[in-house]
Amino acid sequence: MTPFGPILHDHEKRLKMLEASRRDLEDQMVVMAAIERKHAATMEAWEEFLSERVQYELEEKKRDDEWKAHHELAMKEFDDELNGLIAWLDDLVKRNPKNGK
Fold it and tell me: How far is CA 66 from CA 53, 70, 71, 86, in A?
């Protein structure tokens, strides 16, 4: 068979195409691995962010509940003092002979 025969030339052409396809596939696999690493890092960062956000929300709710309890107690004390002042003032007006009655 001659070195320039049609069958040998076709076989060499197919081998070159196969080698080029293999190199393309290897390049694509390298790119896919890089994308996968980047995606994994992004997901890890996102999970960390969500974890921190959930922790922050829980702490914020705890602070809010503590403030509401403190505010409720302060309002109750204020209400008691105000009711006492109203009662004292009502008694003062009833005892005062100059109240116009």
Answer: 20, 6, 9, 30
Place of tokens 């691995």: 33
Q: How far apart are CA 90 and CA 85, in angstroms?
A: 8
* Whether residue 8 has pLDDT greater than 80: no
Helix (H, G, I), strand (E, B) or coil at 96: coil
State the amino acid at position 87 in one-letter form. A
Which pLDDT does position 58 carry in this prediction? Answer: 97
Distance between CA atoms of residues 19 and 23, nearest Å: 6
The whole-angstrom separation of Cα 19 and Cα 34 is 23
Q: Is the pLDDT of residue 98 over 50?
A: yes
Tokens of 33: 């691995």
Q: What is the mean pLDDT of residues 64-76?
A: 97
Separation between Cα atoms, residue 63 and residue 69, nearest integer Å: 10
Task: Evaluate whether 1 touches 8 at the Cβ level (below 8 Å).
Answer: yes
